[in-house]
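Final report, Chapter 2: Outcomes

The project's central promise was a pipeline that accepts a single protein chain and returns its three-dimensional structure in a standardized token representation, suitable for archiving and comparison. That pipeline is now operational. To close this chapter, we reproduce one record exactly as it appears in the project archive, with the input sequence first and the structure output second.
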Amino acid sequence: MEKMWAGRFAEALDKEADDFNSSISFDCKMYREDIRGSMAHATMLGARGIISEADVEVILGGLASILADLESGALAFDMDCEDIHMFVEAELTKRIGDAGKRLHTARSRNDQVALDVRLYLREQTGEIVVLLRELLAAVVDKAEENKSVIMPGYTHLQRAQPITFGHHLLAYAMMLMRDVGRMEDAVKRMNQSPLGSCALAGTTYDTDREMVARALGFDGITMNSLDGVSDRDFCVELMSAYAIAMMHLSRFSEEIILWSSWEFKFVELSDAYTTGSSIMPQKKNPDMAELVRGKTGRVYGNLMALLTTLKGLPLAYNKDMQEDKEAVFDSIATLKKCLSVFAPMIATMRVNVQNMYRAAQGGFINATDLADYLVKKGMPFRAAYKTVGQIVALCIEKKTVLDDLPLDEYRKHSELFAEDLYGSISLETCVEKRISAGGTGKASVEAQIACVRAFLAGK
């Protein structure tokens, strides 16, 4: 097949070099966006009198037929074409003749691909946001079911203070809400049409870029033609948002993996989201969570690859920028797959309430509340901290816990201790009296749940 740009060249492109140069194997994903952009461009050319209305009608009909045939499978991509833009133009010209050759007036593949990528990422990010919201709904539902279930909270992976499982899950809900906001903000910044920037300097034709932008749902146009064709900030920003979302999923996965181990046994994953061993019949492995954790590195790598590709590029367009698509396409596909499996994995996860409670009873996680007990009776916090530390050491020596240490032992350390201390350091009391906003107390957890549900409702 003769290249669209063949006029300047006396020799054919080497076959291996042609394959190396080609991008249709992956940018064919953008066929809908490419055709949609071409339709808007052709309509504008007609409206400005740059091409005839008769040509516009034929072009639009030809593009519509190509789209229909690609969607139905009647037309296959020609892998001998350099890219999706050349494929569509060649197929259009084949179908409608010379009118098809007029479509590329007042544009370049440089602004065309910049347009296609923006349209594709806008659509795909919208689908990712839907999946994030589905996961968020599963998390908040599970949090509401477990808003009173007591578990140990951790710092340094050491038991620290008692919290509720609902409160713990809601921490991930907050992360997911930020992920949604981050992606929606990035899409807003991206939503400017580059079409009409042409190769780098604009065009001599009297075009209407705003008309095309409106037709394609953009908020406006890119204001500098050099930037219009060479900007890939939007790819980097969205890939960063994807990477952050994957980081959140990975942290969540790590906890699920720990919680479902025999050492914790806080949760049990559904059989539908676990696998067995080929040799050990007792095994129930959290493979889905492990795969999410593993695939996070892949998305990080894609982000770093694109940043590295862009870091030394002079203006305007360079062929290096073809490397943006495989990286961002892979990040999108990976994140979507992870989200698709994560939501039902959380929704079907069973919580072992008693195991969580028993774990909370160990580790002296009510020690801070014991110190607060003394502070409220007049002892300075640092003195109370030291006193409780000595009592914890005594409990360890006697192989007991704060709840079971006799009152006379407490009173050896301070006369401020009285019978009411046991009620003050019960796990239920420790959780419920955390009344500060954002804490693990019931009212706060319910307020967090209401916040997430309002977010999901769009309020």
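Archive annotation: The first helix runs from residue 15 to 21.
This record, like all others produced under the grant, will remain available to the consortium after the project formally closes.
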